[in-house]
Design brief:
Number of strands: 12
Largest sheet: 7 strands, mixed
CATH architecture: 4-Layer Sandwich
Helix content: 10-25%
Number of domains: 1
CATH topology: Metallo-beta-lactamase, Chain A
Length: 256
């Protein structure tokens, strides 16, 4: 699915991945953003083969290390042996040195929420080439892009933004489907939502991250769950999330 210039999206059942191409001096290089759900490696590899043949990516960039974003990672790293870029606060979770907080299945009702206690929370047993992102580091080959720390869903969650056309790869800082609802996941009804409630332990910080993304004024939005959105409905949808949250918890100061 073409998301924008040199950006292609691909869905692995309940989670999306993205390809950013047109990189390097000859514009033939590419990177992979997230790797999909567990047991999706053959699906990802087949799609990658169609797009890029045998050419491997410069790197894999992870928005965060939840199970549905690192599902094919172990297989891909063994095959490609390329660096993994992710926020320094996510590294212990990726490597299994820490476990994410337990799921909260009753935060927002829905079958996907109900099933969330059964979702994996462990990392993977590998020692890959990890490049930890901090306030002092950049992703050198992503010319025209910047990474943004958007915590809340996880402490080290990041999003990617291309200012030229306002394209935002938001990971799970936002979703464009109500991920707690199995019906919505199946039908892929497009509407902007907060990150999946069952795996978002710090809701106040997640809302502050959404406010940070509003200031970017994105024109194209592709998230970890759901279909892409375009135009002014993106910012207005994010603003509705903030307004709704303010009504539900008026004492939470989202401006700090």
């Amino acid at each position: 699915m073409q998301i924008g210039e040199n950006v292609i999206g691909f869905r692995t059942f309940i989670a999306n991945i993205a390809y950013i191409s047109g990189l390097g001096e000859d514009k033939s290089d590419w990177v992979l953003v997230d790797t999909g759900i567990p047991f999706s490696s053959s699906l990802v590899l087949n799609n990658t083969q169609k797009l890029f043949g045998s050419k491997k990516p410069l790197a894999i960039i992870l928005t965060h290390a939840h199970f549905d974003h690192i599902g094919a990672l172990e297989t891909l790293i063994k095959l490609w042996n390329v660096p993994i870029y992710l926020h320094e606060q996510e590294v212990p979770y990726l490597l299994g040195e820490k476990r994410y907080p337990a799921a909260r299945p009753f935060e927002v009702k829905g079958i996907m929420s109900f099933l969330s206690p059964f979702y994996p929370r462990d990392g993977i047993d590998l020692k890959p080439k990890i490049v930890s992102l901090s306030s002092k580091t950049t992703i050198p080959f992503l010319k025209g892009w910047k990474w943004i720390h958007t915590p809340g869903h996880t402490c080290g969650h990041i999003s990617l933004f291309r200012e030229e056309d306002g394209l935002l790869l938001a990971g799970d800082a936002l979703t464009t489907v109500k991920q707690e609802s199995l019906f919505s996941v199946i039908t892929q009804k497009k509407e902007i939502h907060s990150p999946p409630a069952y795996f978002t332990p710090d809701r106040a910080t997640a809302l502050k991250s959404i406010e940070k993304l509003i200031k970017l004024n994105p024109k194209i939005l592709y998230t970890g769950h759901g279909k892409p959105l375009y135009g002014n409905s993106i910012v207005s949808g994010m603003e509705k999330i903030i307004k709704r949250a303010d009504k539900e918890a008026p004492n939470v100061n989202l401006q700090t």
